[in-house]
Amino acid sequence: MRFPVRVLSTLVRRSAVPDLPIFRYHPDPLATGSVEASNDPCEVCGLNRGFVYAGPVYSAVADDPIICPWCIADGSAAGMLQAEFTDAGSGLPDRVPIEVVDEISHRTPGFSGWQQEHWLYHCDDAASFMGHVGYDELMALPGAMEMLSHENDDYGWSPEQTEAYIHRLEPDGEVTGYWFRCVACQSDLAYSDTA
Q1: What separation in angstroms does the CA of 125 have from each of 94, 119, 143, 182?
Q2: Coil vs helix vs strand at 11
């Protein structure tokens, strides 16, 4: 079969850009900013694959390593660098399998937050990180909004204080929401923190 030159060049360009690994608990790390385009080679595999991880790395042996998403997905980055990419154990429900915690900690891109990031769980599994959100985005996510409206109940916040706080949330602001979605029931979840 012969392709016109225009179609052939499009096919060549598409095949030259590798598909990112699939992360069950972080389905679009390019959109969330946890993976970005780069010409830097990975310090784990030595390859320049066109993308690098841009999230936090907690490692005892490396400061700010350059890591490709493929080395996160196969666990080689966590193994070689003695690294974790998020605090998967914070707020961990009893019935979440240890294999899930291991996948979140060692084979899933983390995300950047203001304070110590943590993963959310639902239906005895980890939820998928969907991105940073503000008040405007939360209007379309009633489950996440409901969760945030009770986030500070233990601190004695009044409904008025909570409402004012939620209105300040911005994806890139000093008060930010972190949106997750349950992989089982598709419920939207969220937590927030501040600079």
Answers
A1: 10, 11, 17, 8
A2: helix
Given a cut of 50, whether residue 1 has pLDDT beyond it is no
User: What does pLDDT average to over the chain?
Assistant: 90
Helices (H), the chain: 5-16, 29-32, 69-73, 76-81, 98-107, 135-138, 142-149, 159-168
Q: Which residues contact 10 (CB under 8 A, 6 or more apart)?
A: none
Please provide residue 2's backbone torsions phi and psi, each rounded to the nearest 5 degrees.
-105, 135
Q: What is the CA radius of gyration of the chain?
A: 19
Q: For residue 110, give every residue at least 6 positions away whose Cβ sits within 8 Å of its Cβ, in sequence order, or none.
A: 34, 55, 56, 57, 85, 86, 117
Indicate the domain borders of the chain.
19-115, 120-195
Residue 83 has pLDDT above 70, yes or no: yes
Is 80 exceeded by the pLDDT of residue 18?
no
Q: What is the DSSP letter of 118?
A: B
